[in-house]
Amino acid sequence: MKRQQVYLLAAILALAAPLALAQTATPAPAPAHSATAQKQAMRKAMRERMQKRRMMRGAMGSHRMEGSVMSVDKTTGMLEVKSNGHTVRVHFPPETLAGLKTGDKVMLRMSFRKVTPEMEARMKQREDRMKARRDKMKSKAAAAAKKDGK
User: Fold this and answer.
1) What CA–CA distance (Å, rounded) separates 64 from 109?
2) Distance from C-alpha of 36 to C-alpha of 32, rounded to nearest angstrom
3) How many of the other CB atoms lie within 10 Å of CB of 72?
4) Which pTM was predicted?
């Protein structure tokens, strides 16, 4: 008799198990794009924080201001911005000003620090490397032009 009860209980459990499992809701997997978008947003925020740290490292002062573009010279890279009644003239690489026009709203972030002798030496090395690269590119272009001219 006891054996029959055990078999009956086992049969009931075997029949009830699928029903019990069907009742538990399985959460729908999150769309793959949301995880990717979240990762991209985190990477962007990290890059911005690192860029800000690099910019601020050793800075004696920093400032952020919003204003309107008063004039932009895309050949020299000079930009005039009016903010809070003051006009600020700043220089940028000319190619970075391609999309700007008079009247655009912009935000300037600035910082400054004193130049140390070590910094001067690094800047000089960087300038020398850049000049060497430019010279190398010019000589390659001249050699290619000479070869094409023959």
Assistant:
1) 4
2) 6
3) 21
4) 0.45
